[in-house]
Specification:
The chain is built from 18 helices and eight strands. By secondary structure, it is of the alpha/beta class. Helix 14 links the parallel strand 6 and strand 7.
Length: about 450
Amino acid sequence: MTLDPAAAPLEVDPLLDDPETRIIVCCGSGGVGKTTTAAALGVRAAERGRKVVVLTIDPARRLAQSMGIDSLDNTPRQVKGIEGAGELHAMMLDMKRTFDEIVEAHADQDRARAILENPFYQSLSAGFAGTQEYMAMEKLGQLRARDEWDLIVVDTPPSRSALDFLDAPKRLGSFLDGKFIRLLMAPAKMGGRAGMKFLNVGMSMMTGTLGKLLGGQFLRDVQTFVAAMDTMFGGFRTRADATYRLLQAPGTAFLVVAAPERDALREAAYFVERLAAEGMPLAGLVLNRVHGSGAARLSAERARAAAENLEEGRIVDQAGGKNGVREAAAPAGSSPEAALAPQDPHALQDPQTSQGPAPQAPELPHQAPESATPEPPSVNQLTAGLLRLHAERMQVLKREQRTRDRFTALHPEVPVAEVAALPGDVHDLAGLRTIGERLAGGSTATGAA
C-alpha cells in the first residue's frame, strides 16, 4: 500500500529535529498504538540528539517493558541503551500522587494534611470523572515549567473518546469553581454565628435533601474538603487555562494516531475537526498497522480462481484414478482382499495339471487405518491454500485503502504517515527503533499481519 499522491506525507524527522518543537501530543481512540507511537518517537528523537521525556498515562506498563525498565512512576527515569548524543527519560502518570503534589505545593502543612486525609478528597483524587485527564495536563504543565527537557512526548489517556483529554480539565475546573462548590463554601466564608445561622436557615432544605441522597457524612466530608481547599480553587482554573494555552502554542504538535479501520478513522476525523476548532496545531495523522503485500499485482479474484482450478483438478484426478485401478483389478464377485492379494503364477494353473496341492494365497500384512498416517498435502493443495491466503490479504488491503481514502478526501490538508504492521508486539528498544524508522518513511510498502 502506498500513499495517495493527493495526501501530503507526514515528515517526522524534521518535526523531531526542530528545536522549536517542545511538546508532541499523541492522541486517538483506544487500541490504535498511541503508547508505542509515543515511545518510538521518544527513542528516535533521543537518538537524533535531543533530551526527551515520554509521559504515558497507559496503566498496562507496556512502555516500561519495551524500554527495559522494571516499572515507571511519577518521576522521570532515564532509559539505558540509547544510541546517540541525546537522552531519553520515561514516566507514567500517578494520578493521585500528582493531585497530592498540587495540594502540598499550594497549602500550608496543617491544611495540606487535612485535605489529604479527607475522605471526599481521597475519592476525588483516586477516580473522579476527568481527574486522570486533568492530572495529565497538570503534569505536562509541571514538566514544561521545569525546562529540563528539549522535547516532551505525551501519550494521552485511554478513553472512549479522544476528546476527553481536551474536555476533562475544563470539566474538573468548572466543578471546582462551580456554583455548587461556592454554595458549600459560603458558610465557611461567612464564619461564626452568622455562618451557622445562614447554614441553618438558608441551606437547611438543601442540605437535608442532599443528606438523604448522598448521606449526611458524605456531605460533611464535602463541606470540610471545600473549606480546606478554599484558597486553592482559583489555582485549578488558572493552571488548567495556562496548560490549555500551552497546547495551543506554536511549540506544540498534535499527532492523531489511528488504525486503518472505519471506527478509528471516524474518531480521528472528528478529533482533527475539534483541534482545528480549538486552534491547536495539528502535525498530521499516523496510520498505524497498515498491511501490505509483495505480490499486490495478483488480485484477490485471480488468486481465488487459480485456487479453485487447482482444487478441482486434484479432486477429479484422484477419484478417477483410484476408482479405475480398483475396478480393473477386482473381477466381478470377488472380495476386495482377493483383488488386492499378490498373484502367484502357480495359482493360475489348472488344478488338475498342477503338481501337489494348490498353494494358499499369502496372508495380507496388517495395514494401519488411513487416518493414522495421513498423506502429506500435495503441491497443488499447498499452492491453492497460499493463493486463498493471498486473496484474503488483498481484500484487507483493499478495505484499508478504501477507508483511508475516505479520510483523506474529507481532510486532504492533513499529512499522513503510514506505519507497516509488524509480525508481533513491540517489546524492546530494537522494536521501537523499527517503528521509528517506519514513522520516518522507511519500509512502509510491505508489512506482516
